[in-house]
Amino acid sequence: MKTKMVKSTPESIAAFSNRLPKASVLAFSTIGFGTWIAISIFSSLELSSKLLENWLIAGAWGLILLHAISLSAHHSSVKVHNLGLWLLASGLVVATLTVPQLITEAQHVSSDNVPVVILRAVNVVAVISLCLSSVLLPRRPEVYFKDRKVDAQWTVSALSRYTWTWVEPLLQYASKRNDLDAGDVPHPDRKLRSGPLKHDWDAMRFDGSLLRALLWAYKGSLVLQWSVTIFRNFLGLLPFWTMLRLINILEQRDSRRSEASLELWILVFAMAAFNLLDAWVEGWVFWYSFADVSLPIRAQLSTLVFEKSLRRKNVKAAEKQKETPESQEADGNNKDDDDESDSSSVLKSRQAIVNLVGVDAARIANFAAYQFLIINSVAKLIMFSFFLVRLIGWIPFGAGILAWAATLPANTYFSKALLGKSEKLMKLRDEKLAVVNEALLGMRQIKFSALEARWEQRILAMREKELKTLWQLFIVDTGLFGCWVVSPILLAATSLAIYAIVHGELLPSVAFVSIGIFKALEVTLGVLPELITMSVDTLVSIKRIDTYLQGPEMEKTLSEGSDVGFESASIAWPVDEDTPDEDRFILRNLNFNFPAGELSVISGKTGTGKSLLLSAILGETDLLDGSIRVPTTVKPAKRHDDEAHPGNWIVPGSIAYVGQTPWLESASFRDNILFGLPLIEERYQKVIEVCALKKDLEILTDGDKTELGANGINLSGGQKWRVTLARAIYSRAEILVMDDVFSAVDAHVGRHIFEKCVTGDICKGRTRILVTHHVALVQTKAKFIIELGEGTVLHSGLVSDLIQDGTLEEIKSHEQTSQQILEDEAADSSTAVNSEEASVTDETAETNGLQKVQSKDAKQFIQEELREKGVVKKHVYMTYLRDSGGLLLWGICAVIFLGYEIGILGRAWWLRIWTGDADDGVSSVSVHQQHGHASILSLQQFPLNSASGLRVAESQNDLNFYLYVYIGISSVTAVIGTLRFFWAYFLAIKASRSLFEKMLFAVLHTPLRWLDTVPVGRVLNRFTSDFNIIDNRITIDWTMFISNLLSLGGVCVAAFFASSYVIPLAVVLLGLGIMIGNKYLYGARPLKRLESNCKSPVFELFQRGAGWRFYHPWFPEDSSLR
């Protein structure tokens, strides 16, 4: 796999420099080494007890200096960057040894040790500066991939990479323009490009299930992520430990007020440091989860599904042939399987591929981004449980665990029900998508027949089934959420109640710290229901994709030979299960060879297997017996099409196929003919002439630069077919396989194509195999003729032999009448005739080249997908608000969430009453604990408070009263917490139903011109990916926003009661958060819109992939993947 396409430009190399940080590293290493040598000499003169320790540290500084010298001498920027990271590790080790010594010396400063203290201070500054300089070394110059800058994650310094400031230029650019285009976004790094990811996946050669393959492929990333997650949980205990120590000091402080105050300050700053470090580790874990796990998995799965679609059996043809062979032959086996009866199987529906990529792969990637939270929850539960046991004892904690475990049976029931509902929902979505796709592809017939209302009812009926199942899934999900909302509240209430009963009192140090831990567990365990839901959905999606990837592929049925031929062959349309031969249409006992370099003709009535025979030549049928031979050819990668010229144009053994149904790309006229090959002007002009397209180009507004639209919608039926033929004729194929090329043209146009194209100079020496009903038209120049009928070959042989024995006349007598043929062609004949007449009326005129386009730029028929710019408009919010129930229902939702927040604050308030009549400083801490860690600044108020009144009254009646009220508040809070999700899901269903109906009505009643200019993939993107978000995410995200907003209000209330000094700092922090959030939104909004729009071409590619059969014989599969 070539990855050298990533390279730096001369400009980026010239702009790159790491001299300053390299010089800084060398300078600070020298200063550190020199100062510590001086310190060691002083300790030797004074015979200090730290003499050996100091000289060992001096040796470490010497190694650091050698490291810095080596780093400065290196010219490879990547090696210098890596050496800087090792130097950082060395500097941190030295700092852990030298900083404590400085603190010890500073506490006992005297005239004798002032020089040593100064030297130690300089040394500490040097080691800190050294560490900072080592992470400021840039890794490499800016690099480019396909003339587009690669994102700077692996270009910038380690400090920029691990503080995520490398994305700052893009955010600044977005804030200036208030928008971003696809070209403004840097190209992803190799780890996120589908080509290298596909190569890495293939290199592992996985066997077995997709789940095991994914776990094995990402085992290193997952182990690293899970390890850091477990470390973070240990780190998360440290703030609680400092809080416990801090409150113990407040409870037990004595006359040594100054010492207590000093220790309080140390604990406060330690808590701040622990929280900041915890926040950074959390940010890194989330970033790593998205960048190194989620996005690569999505790219790999999408590529695997598309690659599989290029290799899988075309089983729909077999089923149709089995039912009605005649209709299958008439259709050319190329219709989409929109009316697939068994839509539950992803293998039997092309439209299901869109769901596999748009929904299933996205769900798997989304779960991959958050799966570490399960490890986080388990690890936190275990670690915090040990801490709680030390804090409140085994008996209260054991009682709390039993209360928590009481919800497990219900949790198990809801989890199993969730799995069943999720599988059913995805099957219904496949069925709905098949019907929607069928309507989109047949929109002309629907409109011409005025069937919009009927199709709307049909689609809405499928949608109603989907929403019914979705609502059942939401009910089950609500039950699951209820279990996990109730369980941590039961754990906290039961543990504290039993503790109070056992000990007869509830100290603030126990109450506040335990409530803080319980709240942390509540937040952690509270995400488990959603994670369980995501994991169930992910298992369903993995199973669906795995089933698709494990499906049958086209087996190799072709053997090498000098020409195209069949030897005792029996062929049938492919099937994906064991089907009895009597239920399959089979061509048996095929024995003939097509003469190389000559025209061979296949004839027979409709339904006799002519298209089946052509498919067998392409290797797309089941070979039941015998053998099929085709000439060998070079692999696509070794053809070097970009170097082709008239002297080596024809590639021996290569095949081009022209089907009955034209297949065109949404590209220009010229690009559809060239199809990735270089332009040879003389050959191109000749192809246009022999395919009767010259006059058509003169009529088209922009000549051969005219955009043809989705599947050539700008052309008539005859024009589409002739462009498809021209593509095959222009190709480098030696063997041309053509299916009834005269059925879509008038007789005189057909004769022109036959004489000038099929048997003209441009096809001289090429093997041509032609299916036709017009034997009389082609017999004069045909070399070999086959007639099919009754499941076998009725007649075959050289034309000269067939003429001598009279067989040719018998074959011609079996031809269908002109009227029968015209009935098959009636769909496009009216529009095709005028064009075809224009194309051949001036055959005697001189060919002076194609008409040149006067305008510089051809008109773009398929317009670029539009997207909003700037902030989301007010009417968007109002539309969703109205369709989801209006102000009344959203007002009820706000009241429910407010009630839950009041319940949370009420528990804290009641604990404050329970733990004694302390003043506001204590209550502020308890209130704030409901939202996370204690406020650092609020704890400064404790030295001013009296310790009296912090113990609970010993009256048993009072204890029971406090317990009952606390349990009552907790129970009501749990019920309201569960009701939140039920109401959110209720609003989501209302919005989904209304918005889908409006969009469907708009699409079905829009003018045909709009449908012609909008690719089907763009519409499918709206109906699949976007509505998946509307169904499952938007309302939940909005309700979570309300919840977090109310939680923020609770924090502000806690800060207000804590101290008036907190308010200015809170305002500053709030303003800073708003500023950063606003800057983030400037980049996030356009990127989200770009992401949504960029899905449309992907869906369109998958949709067009259904027609790959028309070109894959001569078009490299790898090019399709790229």
Automatic annotation (TrEMBL):
Compositionally biased intervals (Basic and acidic residues): 316-325
Compartments where found: Membrane
Chief location bin: membrane
Keyword Magnesium: no
GO molecular function: ABC-type transporter activity; ATP binding; ATP hydrolysis activity
Domain of life: Eukaryota
Record's compositionally biased regions (Polar residues): 828-838
Cellular compartments per GO CC: membrane
Domain (ABC transporter): residue spans on this chain: 564-815
Keywords for this protein: ATP-binding, Glycoprotein, Membrane, Nucleotide-binding, Repeat, Transmembrane, Transmembrane helix, Transport
Residues covered by region (Disordered): 316-343, 823-849
Domain ABC transmembrane type-1: start-end pairs: 229-537, 953-1103
Cleaved signal peptide residues: none
Membrane topology: Multi-pass membrane protein
Pfam families attached to this UniProt entry: ABC_membrane (PF00664), ABC_tran (PF00005)
Transmembrane regions: 20-43, 55-73, 85-104, 116-137, 262-280, 373-395, 401-419, 470-490, 496-518, 887-910, 961-989, 1038-1057, 1063-1082
Family: Belongs to the ABC transporter superfamily. ABCC family. Conjugate transporter (TC 3.A.1.208) subfamily.
Name of the molecule in the record: ATP-dependent bile acid permease
Lineage per the UniProt record: Eukaryota, Fungi, Dikarya, Ascomycota, Pezizomycotina
